[in-house]
Amino acid sequence: MKALVTGGSGYIGSWVVRQLLEDNQEAKVLVRETDDLRNLTGLEVEYAYGDVRDYHSLCRALDSCDRVFHLAAIYAMWLPNPSIMDSVNVQGSKNVFEARP
């Protein structure tokens, strides 16, 4: 089985990836070009470049995956532009739930 992990480069997401690998499962991680990938250093994962806000990149990322662990989110207490929180946390989640390979 192969799982797509959104937010897999983050702290919690990277631990989900580690657990998948420990359980002898394949992991594909949705990452943006600008993501810091240090939490995934040394792990045998496949990278899918995209963004939860981009429905089509999610569909491409889901190709060959059996399931999704959706952990991508903005968790700031304040942002100069709060609409980004809505576009990632609300619209991004909606895209993940509706995406098809």
Give the structural class.
alpha/beta
> If you consult CATH, what is the topology?
Rossmann fold
* Name of the level-1 CATH class: Alpha Beta
Amount of beta strand: 15-25%
What is the oligomeric state here? single chain
How many separate helices?
3
Distance between the termini: 15 Å
> Which consecutive residue ranges, at least 5 long each, have pLDDT under 50?
none
Instruction: Give me the Rg, rounded.
Output: 13 Å
CATH homologous superfamily designation: NAD(P)-binding Rossmann-like Domain
Query: Which architecture name does CATH use?
Result: 3-Layer(aba) Sandwich
Average of pLDDT:
96
Helix-strand sequence: EHEEHEH
Q: How would you sum up the global shape?
A: globular
Summarize the biggest pleated sheet: 4 strands, parallel
Number of strands: 4
Strand order of the largest sheet: 3-2-1-4
